[in-house]
Write a structure and sequence with these properties.
The chain is built from 15 helices and 19 strands. It is an alpha/beta fold. It is globular. The protein starts with 6 loop residues before the first strand and ends in a 5-residue tail after the last helix.
Length: 367
Amino acid sequence: MKNKYSSLYIHIPFCDCICSYCDFPKLLKKTGYEEKYIEALIFELSQLPVKTFSTVYVGGGTPTALDDNLFNRLFSYIRKNIKCLGEFSVEANPESMSYEKALLMAQNGVNRVSLGVQTIDDSILKILNRNHNANMVIKAINNIKSVGINNVNMDFIYGLPNQDIEKLKRDIDFALSFDPNHLSFYPLQIEEGTVLFNKKVKEPLQDELDDYYEMIISKLKEKGIERYEISNFAKSGFESKHNLTYWHSDDYYACGLGATGFVDGLRYKNTLNINKYINHEFIYEKNFEDLSDQEFDFLMLNLRLVSGFSLNDFYQRFNHSFLIDYKDEIEKVKDYLDIDEDICKVKEKYLYILDSILVDLLHFKEN
């Protein structure tokens, strides 16, 4: 059953530098659009048809790349005009996660921070064009916790250029030294148009990634940090409520350059053109998804979760039985699924081959 309240995503595209693997909408801070952008963003937020949300997530780009005055202006507006009923998250980079910004976050209701670490290996960070080191990560986490924000996620990437299993182990041990509530470990994906793609860097072989992944799962599990989604791990109760909105196929609004929202079957995407955006030409395209499209997305996203999905929820949303109408497809992948009276999920040991399972279940081709 869908949540009563939607979620809200807010995009800040500015970065002090461009990471070599990043394909998200972004702009160099030095382009000078920040003030006009925040003005336009606040106007877009003011036009939202609802003002109460189950979760709010401010991502990027690098939200903490904003100067303190603009940062405070945006978050003060959110605090005064938007009601967040639960998790209020902000993405941050270690080098710009100052005490002053942490304090502004706390004063304006932020209760969760997601810190982009990626790795602590200096030579690999240079390849990624990242501007931090391990000491900056330590300082950033101290800044966040010193203002009373104790729900902190750290993002890491594995399968990086020049990374081996020992370097990855050091990353994991470093992360675990903070007794974290939540960790994300994503395999490197080299997207067209990124610096790594243009330099013809190759992704690691699947067997190598599998070894890395198994070690991540094992070491985190020893510390009570359980996998709940393919790339996300948490102590009980600290799962990302906002990201669960996406994986549960619930509604979410989105504001900001290039942001994508999904509300009542309508998927919309904002413009990637900064000049159009600051002139309040926000939405670039709209596409109403029929129930068959929504059903496809529901299965593809929910099966990423260790918990899978409720068969009753499926019926309530799409008015037909998953077990009956997918009988032939289920037969092809039955060895990989656990199905009981109300739950369908992928067996945990097979989550890493989810894409192959979905090929047979949903009739689409792997890339």
